[in-house]
From TrEMBL:
Keyword Membrane: no
Gene Ontology terms: biological process: proteolysis
GO molecular function, one term: metalloexopeptidase activity
Protein name, UniProt field: Peptidase M28
């Protein structure tokens, strides 16, 4: 009996050591994976997509108009070609929004949705959003291509989706589900995100962990000209202290961008916190981060063209958002909402122009 007990003890020690080594190995593999798949996001691919998405062919992507229909087809075809499914139904990537929802002033339009199902907590949802529309054609016939606003955010979401898909194919799929949400009607009053949140949330809002919203991340504003890479972050601490801390930790560990919180001030006269699609999640007590490069002289002008994008900055910013989403999707516990009702409701959405 003593010999058996000693053998059992030795076996237990060996198993324990092996288990510990496997956990450390898995952790190391996980850390290696996020960097590996972040590097699949490249300036060259972002540039190639944006030169198409913000071309004259798309006629400024005004909500309900033919150019916007070309835009949603482009997005759908991208997801189909990368075998990233829709959460609505097989082959159906469009969340239809009727003309009546726009108070009769805009033709019917569509959000575009794709997703990757979580491997362990599929019912919990990480939303990565950007608006697919822009302001269309000016009265004098000039096309407002909207390369930065929000072509940059749109192609960033596409690249992030590709990176998560590559990870999934290699056995590193996210624990939580990732929803890639391209919303329409932002420029006219945040209609697409409002429709998703208020009328038809494909995934229950109670199960939605966070919205990472990307709206203009391809340029440099006058304040930061000639400086290092940066981003304005808005809303990261409004509802979840934990989200803000994770965001800071990811940046310091992997990127070390300058995070500028100027527009996060509750007294910011620009009121950007209320002026992009994350707001429709925040008002439902869902933590958000709004990623933004600030305005510039080409904002809402025909001169917002792809040749003026800083693709090196865009690449790093997109990798940052992907890495943050990776952490939020794969951590053991969902982030805690510890500051409910911290947002300040407004009676109307701030117009973008």
């Amino acid at each position: 009996m003593k010999k058996l007990s000693l053998f059992s003890l030795i076996a237990l020690v060996i198993l324990s050591c092996s288990s510990s080594q496997n956990k450390n190995k898995n952790k190391a593999n996980s850390n290696a994976s996020v960097e590996t798949y972040a590097q699949t996001i490249t300036a060259a691919e972002l540039k190639d997509m944006l030169y198409t998405y913000a071309s004259d062919e798309f006629e400024g992507r005004r909500t309900g108009e033919p150019g916007q229909k070309k835009a949603i087809d482009y997005l759908k075809n991208h997801y189909v070609s990368n075998n990233i499914p829709s959460p609505i139904a097989e082959g159906d990537y469009f969340q239809e929004i009727p003309e009546s929802y726009f108070n009769g002033n805009i033709k019917a339009s569509e959000n575009v949705l794709a997703y990757i199902k979580g491997s362990e907590k599929p019912e919990e949802i990480i939303v990565i959003s950007a608006h697919l529309d822009h302001i269309g054609i000016s009265k004098n016939g000039d096309i407002n291509n909207g390369a930065d606003d929000d072509g940059s955010g749109t192609v960033a979401v596409l690249e992030i989706a590709e990176a998560f898909k590559e990870a999934e194919k290699a056995g590193f799929g996210p624990k939580r589900s990732i929803l890639f949400l391209h919303v329409t009607g932002e420029e006219l009053g945040l209609y697409g995100s409002k429709y998703y949140a208020n009328e038809d949330p494909i995934f229950p809002l109670a199960n939605t962990v966070v919205d990472l919203n990307i709206d203009m991340i391809g340029r440099v504003d006058p304040k930061h000209e000639g400086g290092e890479n940066y981003l304005y972050l808005i809303g990261s601490d409004k509802l979840s202290t934990e989200l803000h801390n994770i965001s800071e930790e990811i940046n310091k560990k992997y990127f070390n961008l300058e995070f500028d919180y100027t527009y996060n001030d509750d007294n910011d006269p620009n009121r950007f916190y209320y002026r992009s699609d994350h707001y429709n999640f925040a008002k439902n007590n869902i933590p958000v981060i709004f990623y933004f490069n600030g305005t510039h002289v080409d904002y809402h002008r025909p001169s917002d063209t792809p040749d003026k994008i800083n693709y090196e900055f865009l690449e790093t910013r997109t990798r940052l958002i992907f890495t943050t989403a990776w952490e939020l999707a794969n951590r053991e516990e969902r982030i805690i909402v510890d500051n409910k009702d911290s947002y300040k409701p407004v009676h109307a959405f701030g117009r973008r122009y």
